[in-house]
Specification:
Blueprint (H helix, E strand, L loop, with lengths): L1 E5 L3 H10 L5 E5 L3 H11 L2 E2 L3 H7 L2 E4 L6 H5 L8 E3 L6 H7 L6 E5 L9 E7 L5 H12 L2 E5 L5 H28 L4 H21 L4 H8 L5 H11 L2 H18 L1
Helix pairs in contact: 7-8, 7-11
The protein binds NADP nicotinamide-adenine-dinucleotide phosphate.
NADP nicotinamide-adenine-dinucleotide phosphate binds next to helix 1.
Length: 256
């Protein structure tokens, strides 16, 4: 299978890094012929002389351009191949308007962790996508992380839980590290301790297939330190505050 990228910025480059570990043949087309040549040298990839030339020779087109450029870039093209879009906020129905209602279309939502091949990626497709093509697109996403097939109506929620949440998780890590500094650790020490603990705590949930509450109960010994801190955390409303921030994220995604 030959895959062509139109637009190769931060996210497409991360995806290409994952795809380079697979058998797929890759080709790119950037914002100009000069940019295509430059990116081709940087990433050691073939380039096409134009977007149309790329489309005509590939089996799947991946769009790596910004959502606001989709209309300008796609309108002059005759798109005859399945299209995979990663553009935030562009629904499959809109993609069909911009390409063709006759085409198999796939929508994905990767996150920033694609850069370390550990993206949490959502995928959905229109009814013209065969099981085989859907499996191929899932395999493409698996090359740069973990893939979750969800219905398109859940994309905004997914965007909040996986796209935006790394920022919220970093804020939590930063807050814990600041508390360590307050109590005498250096910032570097505190960050190293907290980061390792967050990593291992996630790993623990996954590897032991545990529920967070089961592990919370295990850590909270009767009359101990953790239950004292945990109740203080809920006094300031951590759960309500997190849910409220996810509500705000989803609301904003719906407005875009
Ligand atoms: N970054 C993320 O964390 C993230 C997460 C989820 C989804 N996404 C989606 O991924 C897509 C790309 O985002 P990004 O963060 O990778 O943006 P980006 O780094 O700005 O990449 C966009 C690329 O599009 C190229 N481009 C501009 N005009 C073009 C044209 N006419 N033809 C072909 N290429 C053109 C730009 O080329 P130049 O470099 O020459 O300007 C740039 O390399 C967006 O749709 C975004 O919604 C991104």
């Amino acid at each position: 299978m030959k895959i062509g990228f139109i637009g190769v910025g931060k996210m497409a480059s991360a995806i290409i890094k994952g795809l380079k570990t697979t058998q797929y043949e890759l080709i790119i087309s950037g914002s100009s012929l000069e940019r295509s040549q430059e990116i081709s040298r940087q990433l050691d990839l073939a380039y096409a002389n134009s977007h149309q030339e790329l489309i005509d020779q590939v089996d799947l087109v991946i769009l790596g351009i910004k959502p606001q450029l989709m209309e300008t870039v796609l309108t002059p093209l005759a798109i005859t191949k399945p299209v995979l879009s990663m553009a935030a906020g562009i629904k499959l129905s809109r993609l069909a308007q911009l390409t063709s209602s006759e085409l198999p279309l796939i929508r994905i939502m990767p996150n920033i962790n694609a850069t370390i091949l550990a993206s949490t990626t959502a995928i959905c497709a229109n009814e013209l996508v065969s099981e085989e093509l859907f499996a191929t697109c899932q395999a493409i996403c698996d090359s740069f992380g973990e893939t979750f097939a969800i219905t398109e109506k859940d994309f905004d929620t997914f965007t909040a839980l996986a796209g935006s949440s790394p920022a919220y998780i970093y804020l939590f890590i930063e807050a814990l590290a600041k508390a360590g500094v307050k109590h005498g650790l250096t910032k570097d020490q505190a960050l190293a301790i907290v980061t390792q603990t967050v990593l291992a705590s996630s790993k623990h949930l996954i590897e032991e297939n545990e529920q967070p509450h089961a592990l919370i109960d295990k850590i909270c010994s009767p009359g101990g330190t953790t239950i004292a801190g945990l109740l203080d955390l809920e006094k300031t409303g951590l759960t309500a505050s997190v849910v409220s921030s996810i509500d705000a994220t989803i609301q904003k995604a719906k407005e875009l």
